Amino acid sequence: MGGLAFVHAMEGMYVRQIFVSGHRGCDVEQSGRLEWLLTNGLGGFSSGTVAGVNTRRYHGLLIAAPGGPDRFLLMSQLHEEILIGGKKWHLGAFRYRDCVHPRGHELLLRFTLYPVPQWIFFGGSWVLQKRIGMVHGQNTTVVHYRLLAASTRLEMLLRPFVAVRHYHALQRRDAAHLSVEPGANWHCVKSSQAGPHVWLASSAAFAPDSVWYNNVVYPMETARGLDDEEDLLVPGEFRQHLDVDDEVWFVATTEPEGVSWASLGQVFERTERRRRALLHQAGDPQGVEANLVVAADAFIIRNQGSTSVIAGYPWFTDWGRDAMISLPGLFLATGRASEALEVLTTFAQAERDGLIPNRFPDRSEIPEYNTVDAPLWFIYACYKYLRYTGDSDGLKPLWPVIKRIINGYRRGCAFGIGVDERGLVHAGARGVQLTWMDAKVGDWVVTPRQGYPVEITAL
Fold first, then answer.
1. What angle do CA 12, 18, 20 make, to 5 degrees?
2. What are phi and psi of 376, to 5 degrees?
3. What H or E segment, with its residue span, contains residue 327?
4. Reduced to 3 states, what is the DSSP secondary structure of residue 446?
5. What pTM did the predictor assign?
6. C-beta of residue 92 within 8 angstroms of C-beta of residue 143
7. Residues 178-233: pLDDT tens digits?
């Protein structure tokens, strides 16, 4: 990235050293493929790229799951502008069909991922730190700025880009039906269509002035052959003058009543305390093992009072197969056995006729049962729980479910799932994918595998 400035930040303290030499910023193509992720333990998340360019429809500062299981992208990006006299610097970036504009990545001096995503921007006469955090257990994203160095006083302008939509969809201006309601502290953007509202607030002063930015392109969607353009609403601008060491706070949330401005500065400290607590619970591992323990936490969610596992970000929900396979690593090896039992109970409560859910889908609370292996993985996960904990009393309520699975396979379940007289597992139903090779396009099952999948019998 070059060495025009070096800023060392650790544990909330920084030492400022500035050296003058060449600086080119980051490569937008390479850094646009490097993605960061924050989660809130509810299924919601915040995600983007190092370059600051959103390359997926699923990239955004606030993707909320206010009621579960549906998720909504409510805030796409927050673009910053630095003004000194008549000169300005843009820190954000959008991909359009024929260009990247503005080109804030060219001012990026350094990016670090842990404990939260942090950017250091350099504009020749100023150095600015940016951090993003999510409040655990709440659909709230916090963005924090600190002016680390400057030769003179400057003005900072923030433009929030809003998309109130389901996270699988894209927003077009003519169909968005968005309205802006400025307030004394919170400024609300809502859609007349179904979905949550988003409230915005900042330590900077707000000036309402709704402007649409049209035809933003997401190249990862282009590569997937999907719709790839979106229109985003800027409901207004936040402005604040800054001297060295001054801070700016910005918050996007679905629950403003739960945000305490007095404790806003503790968001990043609470994140670090949670990280340390997770590591201590796992036996204080070091190095790669410590990173894995922290990463595992992103996939564990509380959804409508139940503990479950997100199969993958950005678009998967909770899947039976993935939850059961990952349970020993996510929970048992990390000292979270009580939560492992909660996950087993969540899926056991949804058992039906010897099958547990393949997945709990978006837009519906009705689980899907098209899986031949998830019930078998469920039994295996129960076994691993018992081996790790010795807690046979905890598993007693699940024993009837295990027996129903075994008896269901013996007599035959839905989708042709069963065990024949030789002990071989068979499965198959026209138009239904049943194994882990589950790709389906419309009514076309890419890998039908009707018959006797060998690895299922082995399982």
1. 150
2. -70, -40
3. helix 320-327
4. coil
5. 0.89
6. no
7. 999 999 999 999 998 767 999 999 999 999 999 999 999 999 999 999 999 999 99
